[in-house]
Amino acid sequence: MKKGKFLNRPLVKTSEILEGECIISRNTVKQLKAKGRGSFASRHEILGQIEEELFELKEAIHSGDLQRIEEELADIGTTCSFGIACIKANGLEW
Fold first, then answer.
1. d(CA 58, CA 73)
2. Residue 86 Ramachandran class (φ > 0 left, ψ -120 to 50 alpha, else beta)
3. Is residue 46 classed as helix, strand or coil in its secondary structure?
């Protein structure tokens, strides 16, 4: 096993990074179907949603449930991606 440059960490394969991106993409599609495509109203709404997801991630980490941790990370990734899309669509501060 190759080790990373810092702290002798195991390296993450490109295929594993791409799998993570696919998980976030699938989660985004699921969330869009459930919640619709309405833009976040403001930067503060984006922050509030990320903080909510971060709280849920902390709970998952404390539970030790890796599946739940993965799900919460996907929710954070989806929120960040959608927040960027809202900015690109000039959807904020309306």
1. 10
2. alpha
3. helix
Record the pTM.
0.86
Give 3's strand partners. Answer: 10
The set of long-range contacts for 90-94, using a CB threshold of 8 Å and a minimum separation of 24, is 91/39, 91/40, 92/39, 92/40, 92/41, 92/42, 92/43, 92/46, 93/41, 93/42, 93/43, 94/39, 94/41
Q: What single-letter DSSP state applies at residue 60?
A: H
pLDDT in tens, 10-31: 999 999 999 999 999 999 999 9
